[in-house]
């Protein structure tokens, strides 16, 4: 047995120092890879594939155990159980796996990623009363794996609205503080009245975990998200006809006639911006429209 990493007793001290520096460097590089996996910037599978393509890579020097430990929901006990089921010893490094073990780990990681899905950010926008809230509510009820971001707003709660569920209702001072602390992914003044914003931390955390996130925000906010996160998918919800849009706004009965007229003027401007969006979804039927949006979120069907 040659015993990897064992030093020859005659090895000069200077080389030992260099070797230990290199070891520290390698540890640091491996920690950076683990961090990237945890943050959702790299998939565990891509780390493994890199290790198997290049035996000299940082990835090849990673222990399989450490790679698995970066995965969500895999504590130490489950990691050990997974290693056992794959027939991989706890001390094994990615680069040291045999052909069968590679195959086993590859398909295990693949099926895990398929189940976990890749967290996607989808923005749902559209003119007033097109049914954004209705479609979002359908998704909240039927697809709990999607995080529906809860916005902060300075508008006053309507009867039945719960702080922290429908919105975080903030006063101007608190909203200002969040803006100053850069805690919003985007924010905008909506309907010329109140400010609305998407708190950044829950969105970032969900995406890092591989969960998909849906934002229901206005046009201005959608444009900001496009700039901040170009990988986001922008969806514009369309009414079947203009007449139907008017019918829904009036039928909802939550705005005065004057406010309705103002919103319809804004709606004309918003409809003209539909070409800026990646996907157009017609909300003729709530369930169908919601499913179209969910498909974009790449959520595996139950
Ligand atoms: N930019 C931005 N717009 C938001 C946010 N949350 C809600 N909105 C938009 O604010 C508008 C008003 O929402 P709301 O006060 O619930 O009244 P609604 O007109 O009945 O939907 C809607 O167009 C929402 O899409 C947010 O976090 N950011
Ligand atoms: N597909 C649909 N068919 C018929 N009515 C709808 C549909 N979607 C929404 N509505 C109705 O239209 C009105 C406006 O919907 P809402 O979700 O409040 O719009 P938004 O959030 O876009 O302002 C509500 O009364 C809602 O019940």
From TrEMBL:
Keywords: ATP-binding, Cytoplasm, Kinase, Nucleotide-binding, Transferase. One of its GO terms (molecular function) is ATP binding. GO terms for cellular component: cytosol. Its EC number is 2.7.4.8. ATP binds at residues 126-133. It comes from the Bacteria. Residues 119-298 form the Guanylate kinase-like domain. This is Guanylate kinase. Essential for recycling GMP and indirectly, cGMP. Belongs to the guanylate kinase family. It is found in: Cytoplasm. It comes from Microcella daejeonensis. It catalyses: GMP + ATP = GDP + ADP. Pfam families: Guanylate_kin, H2TH_5.
């Amino acid at each position: 047995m040659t015993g990897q990493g064992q030093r020859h007793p005659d090895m000069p001290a200077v080389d030992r120092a260099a070797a230990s520096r290199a070891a520290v460097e390698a540890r640091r590089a491996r920690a950076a890879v683990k961090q990237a996996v945890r943050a959702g910037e790299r998939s565990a599978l891509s780390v493994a594939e890199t290790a198997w393509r290049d035996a000299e890579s940082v990835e090849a020097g990673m222990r399989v155990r450490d790679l698995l430990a970066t995965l969500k929901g895999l504590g130490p006990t489950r990691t050990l159980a997974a290693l056992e089921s794959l027939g991989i010893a706890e001390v094994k490094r990615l680069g040291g796996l045999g052909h069968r073990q590679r195959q086993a780990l590859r398909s295990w990681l693949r099926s895990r990623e398929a189940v976990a899905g890749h967290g996607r950010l989808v923005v749902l926008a559209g003119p007033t009363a097109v049914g954004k809230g209705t479609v979002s509510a359908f998704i909240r009820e039927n697809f709990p794996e999607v995080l529906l971001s809860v916005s902060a707003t300075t508008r006053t709660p309507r009867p039945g609205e719960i702080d922290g569920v429908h919105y975080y209702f903030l006063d101007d001072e608190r909203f200002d503080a969040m803006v100053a602390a850069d805690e919003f992914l985007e924010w905008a003044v909506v309907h010329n009245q109140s400010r609305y914003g998407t708190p950044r931390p829950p969105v970032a955390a969900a995406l890092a975990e591989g969960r998909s996130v849906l934002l229901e925000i206005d046009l201005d906010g959608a444009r900001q998200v496009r700039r901040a996160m170009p990988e986001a998918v922008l969806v514009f919800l369309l009414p079947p006809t203009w007449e139907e849009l008017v019918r829904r706004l009036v039928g909802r009965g939550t705005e005065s006639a004057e406010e309705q007229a103002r919103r319809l003027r804004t709606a004309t401007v918003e409809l003209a911006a539909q070409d800026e969006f990646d996907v157009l979804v017609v909300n003729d039927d709530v369930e169908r429209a919601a499913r179209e949006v969910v498909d974009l979120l790449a959520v595996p069907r139950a």
